[in-house]
Design goal:
By secondary structure, the chain is of the alpha+beta class. It has a domain of about 140 residues: Jelly Rolls (Sandwich), CATH 2.60.120. The protein contains 4 helices and 14 strands. The strands form 3 sheets. The protein has a 6-stranded antiparallel beta sheet, with no helix packed on it. The longest helix is centred in the first third of the chain and has 14 residues. The chain is globular and about 65 Å long. The N and C termini lie far apart (about 70 Å). Belongs to the dTDP-4-dehydrorhamnose 3,5-epimerase family. Homodimer. It comes from Pontibacter indicus. Keywords: Isomerase.
Length: about 200
């Protein structure tokens, strides 16, 4: 059996496989780490980076209306923690297309069993891993390499009036970043602490 025939058989198996993506739910309900299944040969590999059908089978939002790209010059650049409030709340699908990032989300759903808890996932151009971030989460990341690109698809258009931010080093979350930020915007440095937000809203 020659190499070409083996490749043909492998492709048939891949094509007939029902699932081409691996969905792993995190400890934060509704948030998923997504990996691709690879069909490899001497040329490299082929994989599926998105499949509406498979997303829907896991109950995930597929109404991705906008895709954004963020380029970062330096390792240690921190962006976050960002979210939009209802009725402009958004789900995000995040991937790193060049370099590497430490991607962080915080569960800010008041009724959630994991309210105020966070997770961090390393997304790199080499691991092709994605993070699915549901509505009600704050999101941010730190670059682990120079010249890192991040692409994120969202289910709601940008609405300036609904934009909110939380402090990257808020003790209420105690996020364990891999290093101190080298670059962070003035805006992100001035996001309020959760305690302040709750006091202003009359919750505390």
């Amino acid at each position: 059996m020659n190499e070409e025939h083996l490749q043909s058989l492998a492709w048939q198996v891949f094509s007939n496989t029902t699932h081409h993506m691996i969905f792993t739910e995190t400890k934060l309900k509704g948030a998923y780490i997504i990996d691709i299944k690879k069909l490899e040969d001497e040329r490299g590999f082929f994989g599926r980076a998105y499949c509406q059908k498979e997303f829907e089978e896991h109950g995930l939002n597929t109404n991705l209306v906008q895709a954004n790209v963020s380029y970062n010059y330096k390792k240690g650049t921190l962006r976050g923690m960002h979210m939009q409030l209802a009725p402009h709340a958004e789900t995000k699908l995040v991937r790193c297309t060049r370099g590497a990032i430490f991607d962080v989300i915080i569960d800010l759903r008041p009724d959630s069993e994991t309210y105020k808890q966070w997770i961090g996932v390393e997304l790199t151009a080499d691991n092709y891993r994605m993070l699915y971030v549901p509505e009600g989460f704050a999101h941010g990341y730190m670059t682990l390499e120079d010249n890192s690109d991040v692409m994120y698809q969202v289910t709601a258009f940008y609405a300036a009036g609904a934009e909110r931010g939380h402090r990257w080093n808020d003790p209420a979350f105690n996020i364990q970043w891999p290093m101190e930020p080298v670059v962070i915007s003035e805006k992100d440095q001035q996001h309020p602490l959760l305690e302040t937000v709750m006091e202003q809203s009359g919750i505390a």
